[in-house]
Amino acid sequence: MYPSVHFFHRQAAREKLAARRALTDAARDRHLALAHDYEKRAEAARSARA
Predict the structure, then answer these.
(1) What crossing angle do the helices spanning 25-49 and 5-21 adopt, rounded to 10°?
(2) Digit-coded pLDDT (tens) for 5-41
């Protein structure tokens, strides 16, 4: 079973929160990149359902 759109949105929100709490620029960039990836996956999952 594939993760749901809700799962991807929740993970993106977690990564954005982690980016705000990150201690270094590299960690912040990594968390923001992951958040962006999860948002893209959510959009792809949403369009696949339609």
Answers:
(1) 170
(2) 999 999 999 999 999 999 999 999 999 999 999 999 9
Query: What SS3 class is residue 19?
Result: helix
List the domain range (segments joined by +) for residue 35: 5-49
Please list the alpha-helical segments (H only) found in 22-50.
25-49
How is residue 6 written in tokens?
């809700």
Say how many domains are in the chain: 1
Residue 38, judged by CB atoms within 10 A of its CB (0-12, 13-18, 19+), counts as: buried
